[in-house]
Amino acid sequence: MSMEEKIVEELKSILGDLGEVWIQREKRVYAKVPKNLVLPILAYLKDKGFHQLTTITCVDWIKRGKFELIYNLFSLYHENIHVFIKTELERDKETMPTAIDIYPMAFDYEREIHEMFGIVFEGHPRLDSFILEDWDGPPPMRKDFDTAKYVEEKYGVKDYTEEIWKRMEQPYREEKDE
Amino acid sequence: MSRVKEFDFEYFIGPAHPGVTGNMNYHIWAEGDTIIKIEPNLGYLHRAFEKLIERRMWIKNFPLIPRICVPDPDVNEVLYAMAIEKLMGIEAPPRAQYLRVFMLEMSRMASYLFYFGGVAGTLGLYTLPNWSIGDRDYILDRFEEISGHRIYHIYQTIGGVRRDIPDPGYIERVLELMDYLEKRLKDYDKVFFEHPIFKKRAKGVGVVDKETALKFSVTGPNLRAAGVPYDVRKAEPYLVYDRLEFNVPQVFTDGDVYSRVMQRRLEFEESIKIVRQVMENLPEGPVNIKLRNPFELRVPEGEIYVKVESSKGEYGFYLVSDGDVKPYRLHVRGPSFSHGLQLVRHIGPGTNIADIPVILFSLDICPPDAER
């Protein structure tokens, strides 16, 4: 039995019918779990030796009305396997308990996701502006964020055609000191 | 920090400062000259790559994507091409894979030369920056010959690389450059790596031990300098790294600035070895797969995580496709996100204010790949 299969067996035995577990390809194991089981699974895997939270990815599935969070865990002690814990959030109830007690690295990843997608991490001590300073628009990485409309509303659009024509009509004059 | 005394000082390193590799700001509180708190500030190089990538066709992202990291741009191109190829189920021809390894290793060496110069500069040893950045230019010359560009090469494409090596003499010129760099490394030793000032200033400073490194997701040369011989090229060989002979040096494993610099100096020799092998064993054949119409390209639905060993650490792309002509989502996992933020907050307090530039530079932080 390969290491991937062992991890899948283990996760299946804890999750039962509550989640799906599968091997995507070599050294990549995926698990899809409900929102309230994410933290217990992360804590369990950390105890098992998955010491590294490589990243947290957020995907906005706007057609389904969901946000998907993907926790990317990595272990040196399990033949360098990545385990991806996936969970889905409703688009209108975008809250998630924070994982910084389990993985301190989650601190900045969660701040970034909060800023870019507007997901609120409950219990996070510092969800202030991170990369986008003085940002007042909607979270920009959401699929329904319209860049052109935002620029139009924030900075306004000015038509310079008339001004340019006027300038071109003026004859060229040398400036003289009088 | 709530406690502010008369003798507390506040310092701002960056956003434009030679002590940091890019435009990034560190806000430092110090008591006398001992640091009590350090807080990184991002946002000076945010260019919204992830959003821009979602709005362009698959093939049109190649000129954009190397700009994520300036000193080591080729990893981005290679990762993006590798991710698409894996989703489409195609594989680049062997000659293209060898050329990709060649580009990655040359880029790694260029990045390390930048790094050596930077570390020496922060210690006030200004001979090495002039030499190493001058020698980096010879690498850029070879890049220009093969791809037409010096910094951002835009050399990769879906299913291979854009063009073959210019002429048979190119291999000789690359091998000549490798001999030159190997010879120069001996000069670097004399002027910097064996310099008593460097040893005195770097040994025992900015220690990231094994436990801290594993806790804070440290990867790459910084992790190997802490005594963990983990290298993506060996652990999960991509391209043709499993056919090449090279070592993961484990000589300096204290995790301090000295170990981190010397780790990279030893890996530089391994890169020279790899480039020589690639150039001597370059197989014949085509360099790319001809796609029918790249502008009509649709990548099958799916998601994938690919990673490579960059000069700074593990660099990963999480790519999601929904079967459209554009990528649905691309998430960049840059190594600087873990090295530059949470790790610095942890190791910063307690160090001397004079050591901060060299500690920050020795971690090889590249802010663009943290904020994208």
From TrEMBL, chain B:
PROSITE patterns in the cross-refs: COMPLEX1_49K
SUPFAM superfamilies per the UniProt record, alphabetical: HydB/Nqo4-like
Any one GO molecular function term: NAD binding
Keyword annotations: Membrane, NAD, Translocase, Transmembrane, Transmembrane helix, Transport
Residue ranges annotated for the NADH-quinone oxidoreductase subunit D domain, each copy included: 123-290, 297-372
Sequence intervals crossing the membrane: 109-128
Record-stated family: Belongs to the complex I 49 kDa subunit family.
Protein name according to UniProt: NADH-quinone oxidoreductase subunit D
Originating species: candidate division WOR-3 bacterium
